[in-house]
Amino acid sequence: DRVIRHSGRIHSLSTALCAELENRFPARDNELGKPARRCPTAGMLTPNGKEYAQKIPREELTNVILKLLHAWKEPLSHFNQHMEHHQELPDDSLSKAKQISKMVHELETGIEKVTEKMQSMGIISNSLHGMASSEAAGFSSTNEANMMSDSDFIHCFKRDSNKVQCYLKILKCRIMPENSC
Question: What is the pTM of this model?
Answer without folding.
Answer: 0.82
